[in-house]
Amino acid sequence: MEHVIRQYTLEPGALEVQYIEECFTEFSGKKTAEEIIERLKDRDHLILLSMAPSEDDDGVLIPVSYKIGHELRAQETNLKLVDLVGQLRDVVEFPNRRIFYSWIGGTRTEWRGRGHYRALTEQQEEWAHANGYHELVVKTKNRFYGMRATFDHLNFDVIKFQRHLKDNRESKVYLSKKIAADVLRQHQTTRSVVDAA
Ligand SMILES: CC(C)(COP(=O)(O)OP(=O)(O)OC[C@H]1O[C@@H](n2cnc3c(N)ncnc32)[C@H](O)[C@@H]1OP(=O)(O)O)[C@@H](O)C(=O)NCCC(=O)NCCS
Description:
Aminopeptidase
């Protein structure tokens, strides 16, 4: 199966992601387009959505999975990113290396288990490699078992565990994947990528 992926520019992509996140029950803090634009506007970023035929009308492709990532610098000013870099500093080498943070993503329930997230992750890796990045990092929580299992299948390594003092299920898990040509050779999905608005 060939995955159809759309690569979006900032404003239309932020709106698409705000819209698709409405379909997720897992997310408590859904991102608004405004928040997404604020985070991404002054940094290198990638907004990808994977498409599938709508269940109502087979001819129409709708977004079913999404993934946003952005560059992560050693010196950040955004408080959340300052904290993130602080957590990663002892496990990720920043000097003279480009680090890409895989920020948010997911697949709508009805379309899970069909490789959409793998396709988006592989596309993100291909883009990151082509754009000079050395490593992808991602953060999840202990209690997001499906997400953790997925990163396991996608060969991400756990690099740090940040224990939550009261509730271990809320503990944060940081993972990473070093990007090199051999990683791209192991990709399993076939993808066609089109530029959206
Ligand atoms: C996790 C999630 C993104 C996976 O999306 P998906 O499109 O179903 O994933 P894919 O079909 O591309 O699967 C990718 C790989 O992960 C594995 N996988 C996916 N979901 C899994 C699960 N729940 N348990 C175990 N393995 C899983 C697949 O088997 C596949 O491995 P393979 O290619 O080696 O066979 C999706 O279930 C989701 O959006 N979940 C909710 C998001 C969430 O919990 N977010 C918390 C905030 S981080």
